[in-house]
Structure formats: C-alpha cells, structure tokens
Design goal:
disordered N terminus, mainly alpha, 18 helices, 0% strand
C-alpha cells in the first residue's frame, strides 16, 4: 500500500489545480476545479474531496461539509468534517472535538494520516494551542504539514526553527506555491530587505495564478512593514473587493486608517460583525479598558 505521508499534495498531477487554488486562497476556484476532476483513483478522489471541503470551510460554508460527509466516509474526510464542526459551532463544541482528536491521535491508523494530522493541527492552532498543533504537524512530511509547522514556529517566535523547516520544504519542492508562501511568511518576520522579497513573492503568485484576498493581504502586510500605508490601504481595499469578509484584511485596514489619520469606526463595525473575537478587536478592547481604568484613577 502507498505511504501517504510521503506524497506532497502540491505535487504536479491531477490534483495540482485544486491544491494550488486552495493554497493561494482562491476557494471558489478550488471547488470548481475539484468538481471537474473525474476518473481518479479512490485515493485521489478522497484527496480531491478533502481539498474541496477545506475550500468550502474557508469560504464560510462548513454546513456543506457537515451535510455531505457521512459517518462511513474515509478518515481524511472525517477529519475535515471535524474542522467543519468546530468552525460551525463557533468553539461551543471545543471540548468534545478536542476529545475526538485525542482519541484519533492515539490510534496509529488515524495518527499517520496527513489530513487527520493537518486538521488536528488546524483546530489546535485556532484554540491558540500552538505547541499541540506543532506536535501534529511536525511529524508529517507533506508540504501542507510543513507549512503549518512554519506558521506555528512563527507564532511561538522561533524564527530559527521556522527557517529550518522552510529549508526542508525547499528541498522537497522549491517551486511549490506553499514553499513560496512559507518563504514570504519567514521573510516578513526576518524584516529588513527580506520584506521586499516577501512582497515580490505575493506579487509573483498573484500574476502567475490569480489575485486573491489572501495574496493582496500579504502584499499589504509587507507594505505596512515598510511604512507604505497608502499603498497598503490600496492593497487591502483590493483584498476586500475579492472577499468582503476577510477578517485579517479588515484588521489591517483599521491599522492603516489609524496611521493615515482616517476614521476607523466603519471598519471596526465590519470586523465586529465578521469576526467578533478577532485578536485585533480583543487588543483594542484591552487598550480601551486600560485607558478607562487610567482615566478613572486620574479623576479619583
């Protein structure tokens, strides 16, 4: 039997258009590409469906996955369904979902499946448990899992380990879109001249494939680091024209507006309706509370 842990999902082949669209954030395109792929082996069909359902979740349609994936589906699809359940319940079912992950990871049949590991890592990351996420992603040898490890190392401020993981990705497939994206993430964190290089990565992917909210937001983040807030604002507005509910783009637009001395209220309202628990909003609330306490103390 095939060892699925050694098959990079981004490899050239029938699934490339689906995996690539998902990587750059072209979620509807990923779904469309998946629906045109026929005549696949059973393994490829499962991989195609896993990619397609991940795109549905990313588009904010987890209910499609919950409705279509049955209890008898392959384990990769069960894993994507668990993420859909997590997203759909807004964290209300976290304890039950985390218990399921613990159960799966204790079973060798499940704990060696790359999609199971990736979905477990994704859920742990959303819970803010980056160390547990890393335990899942770091054992994998697919580009998806390696890219997740890069993100988790960056969250933990271990840029050195992120660079090491990136080198492993480059050795596996230097030209892969996920490797390019991971290079950009690391370069932004390294700062200096590397930020311009990261900007070129996002731009080249947009020109080569298609511009998405994710790629525009990446460009904007680079522009902000370089102090080019007007250019960043333009990129973020482009991002929102592609996806009006992109919470990170909205959060960065608030930061840009503050730097440019523009009103932020509308953007804050939009972000609150899209993602009320976004870290940017929580930080703003914390600052407001601190200011209120300080004001009260000074009056007293």
């Amino acid at each position: 039997s095939l060892d699925h842990t050694t098959i990079p999902p981004m490899a050239d082949g029938a699934l490339f258009p689906v995996a690539n669209a998902l990587a750059i954030g072209a979620y509807q395109q990923a779904v469309n590409e998946a629906q045109t792929l026929m005549g696949l082996s059973e393994t490829e069909a499962t991989e195609r469906d896993a990619l397609m359902y991940r795109a549905y979740i990313a588009m904010g349609s987890p209910k499609v996955v919950l409705d279509e994936v049955t209890d008898g589906a392959p384990m990769a699809l069960q894993a994507v369904k668990l993420l859909a359940r997590y997203v759909n319940s807004n964290g209300a079912e976290s304890d039950a979902i985390l218990a399921t992950i613990t159960e799966w990871l204790a079973d060798p049949a499940w704990s060696t499946n790359p999609t199971v590991l990736l979905m477990a890592a994704t859920i742990y990351a959303r819970e803010g448990n980056y160390n547990e996420a890393l335990k899942c992603s770091h054992v994998g040898t697919t580009l998806d899992l390696m890219a997740m490890s890069v993100q988790m190392f960056l969250q933990l401020d271990r840029v050195d380990f992120a660079e090491k993981q990136l080198r492993a990705m480059s050795q596996l497939d230097d030209d892969a879109t996920l490797t390019q994206l991971a290079t950009a993430w690391v370069n932004v964190r390294l700062g200096g001249n590397k930020i311009q290089e990261a900007y070129y990565v996002y731009s080249e992917l947009g020109e080569k494939f298609s511009w998405t909210a994710r790629l525009y937001a990446g460009c904007a983040a680079c522009q902000m680091h370089m102090g080019r807030f007007e250019e960043a604002e333009r990129d973020l507005l482009e991002a929102l024209s592609k996806d009006a509910k992109d919470s990170d783009a909205l959060a960065n637009l608030i930061a840009c507006a503050m730097h440019l001395g523009k009103p932020t209220a509308r953007h804050v309202t939009q972000l609150t309706s899209v993602d009320p628990n976004h870290p940017a909003l929580l930080r703003m609330k914390s600052l407001e509370d601190s200011f209120a306490r300080a004001s009260a103390a000074s009056v007293a």
